[in-house]
């Protein structure tokens, strides 16, 4: 049973909150908006027994069309907000931040910080048979070349083709998903150059893109799509020392703007996540 208590969504497991808090690692998960929910969904699927604080920077989405300096400034404020909530580790549920400033964040904040690039790159290398991997991402992510660099570090001789898809995030944040004709046309426009190539594995390199899995999959039949949230969630407990218990993970949701629309899109698209209570915060004050 799901309970809504004091701004938090909790599962009623019959275990006292104090007992759980003592045993569980509190992790922070953040993204520019809704996209990180696709990572959160996978973290909860593969990891019971955590306390999670989710932050979506809905006031400043999209990040991916901004300069690396601006993205880093936003990401630092996101991290400082999560640290103020007492998190002991951070998951960057954002391809753009992971691609452009994870090293900076790791050098400034001395807690474990995990991004999506490393787990996704090793999973893509494991999946590909042709050795040609595609990467869809935001403009900042594709320009950074971060996926290609990490794939090259993990395995020699792989070909990587990046495609920037800057319109996907605004479409998704506004609820234009899957079978909407504008979305289908945009998918076709961006992906036509990689259709009928020898790419056999496609990294959905932005955490928003799993909302378009069916549309992308239908346009590129036979290509295996990699959800970077799944790759990260499966490796989470190896990458970060976690203390878990047997109860389901609890999630508290925070956004920087328009909590109602975040809640309705999250509930409509990701019914595994009980996004019942969402709190709005002023991210500029962090
Ligand atoms: N979901 C993010 C990513 O993975 C951010 C997209 C954006 O805000 O542009 O890149």
Describe this structure in words.
The protein is built from 12 helices and 12 strands. The two termini are 34 Å apart. It is an alpha/beta fold and 286 residues long. The longest helix is centred in the first third of the chain and has 17 residues, at 68-84. It has 2 domains: 3-115 and 232-285, Rossmann fold (3-Layer(aba) Sandwich), CATH 3.40.50.1860; 117-227, Rossmann fold. The radius of gyration is 18 Å and the shape is globular.
Major sheet: arrangement of strands: 6-5-3-4-11-12
Radius of gyration: 18 Å
Main structural class: alpha/beta
Give start-end ranges of low-pLDDT stretches: 1-17
Quick one: biggest sheet? 6 strands, parallel
Mean pLDDT: 89
Q: Give a count of the beta strands, DSSP E runs of length 2 or more.
A: 12
Number of helices: 12
Summarize the structure.
With 286 residues, the protein is of the alpha/beta class. The chain has twelve helices and twelve strands.
Write the layout of secondary structure elements.
Elements: E1 2-5, E2 8-11, H1 17-23, E3 26-31, H2 36-46, E4 51-56, H3 68-84, E5 89-92, H4 95-108, E6 113-114, H5 117-127, E7 132-137, H6 139-144, H7 146-154, E8 159-164, H8 168-173, H9 181-191, E9 201-204, H10 213-219, E10 224-227, H11 228-239, E11 250-255, H12 259-269, E12 278-280
Parallel strand pairs: 3-4, 3-5, 4-11, 5-6, 7-8, 7-9, 9-10, 11-12
Antiparallel strand pairs: 1-2
Helix pairs in contact: 2-11, 3-4, 5-7, 5-11
Bound molecules: D-glutamic acid (DGL).
D-glutamic acid binds next to helix 4.
What are its keywords?
disordered N terminus; 12 helices; alpha/beta; 2 domains; 286 residues; binds D-glutamic acid
């Amino acid at each position: 049973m799901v309970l809504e208590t004091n701004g938090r969504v909790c599962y009623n497991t019959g275990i006292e909150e104090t007992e759980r808090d003592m045993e569980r690692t509190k992790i922070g998960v953040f993204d520019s908006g809704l996209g990180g929910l696709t990572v959160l969904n996978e973290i909860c699927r593969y990891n019971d027994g955590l306390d999670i604080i989710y932050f979506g920077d809905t006031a400043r989405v999209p990040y991916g069309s901004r300069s690396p300096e601006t993205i880093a400034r936003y990401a630092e404020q996101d991290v400082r907000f999560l640290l103020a909530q007492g998190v002991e580790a951070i998951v960057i549920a954002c391809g753009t931040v992971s691609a452009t400033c994870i090293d900076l964040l790791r050098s400034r904040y001395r807690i474990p910080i995990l991004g999506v690039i490393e787990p996704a790159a090793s999973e893509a290398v494991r999946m590909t048979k042709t050795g040609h991997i595609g990467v869809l991402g935001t403009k900042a992510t594709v320009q950074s070349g971060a996926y290609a660099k990490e794939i090259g570090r993990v395995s020699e001789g792989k070909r990587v083709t990046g495609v920037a898809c800057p319109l996907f995030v605004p479409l998704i944040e506004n609820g234009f998903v899957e079978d909407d004709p504008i979305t289908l046309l945009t998918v076709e426009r961006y992906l036509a150059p990689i259709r009928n190539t020898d790419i056999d594995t496609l990294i959905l390199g932005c955490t928003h893109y799993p909302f378009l899995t069916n549309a992308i999959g239908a346009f590129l039949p036979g290509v295996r799509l990699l959800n970077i949230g799944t790759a990260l969630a499966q490796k989470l407990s190896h990458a970060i020392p976690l203390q878990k218990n047997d109860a389901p993970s609890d999630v508290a949701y925070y956004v920087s703007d328009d909590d109602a629309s975040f809640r309705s899109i999250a509930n409509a698209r990701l019914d595994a996540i009980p996004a019942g209570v969402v709190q709005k915060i002023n991210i500029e004050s962090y």
